[in-house]
Fold Large ribosomal subunit protein uL13.
Amino acid sequence: MGTNKLSAKDIKREKHIVDASGKVLGRLATEIATMLMGKNKPQFVPYLDTGDSVVVTNASKVKVTGKKSKVKTYTRHSGYPGGLKVETFDKMIVRKPEYVIEHAVKGMLPQTKLGRQMIKKLKVFSGEETK
């Protein structure tokens, strides 16, 4: 009995369209990360990118539970002294709704070259239309 090995030519990719309106951010992000990694397929192997591409629409209509809309923060730093910027979920969902979902999904993917390859297959749109 030999081991069945998966090669790059055996990978079949699909395109999933996910509507984010009314869905909870964390649960949506885990669903998307699972599809990007390919864990929903029977031929999943951790050393290859077997995942599908995902298109998310209505990113501005995603919700969070509890007090997270006021408490959850997104930080960035300009690199200069005093350059720390902190923004709450409420302000970020108005300014950049795509970033909220991208940030949540990116944190759930592997922090390796393979993870950077997986995140490139994610497209997020704030409205209904996909370009």
User: Anything to note?
Assistant: The first helix runs from residue 25 to 37. Residues 15-63+97-124 form a domain with the Ribosomal Protein L13p; Chain: A; fold (CATH 3.90.1180.10).
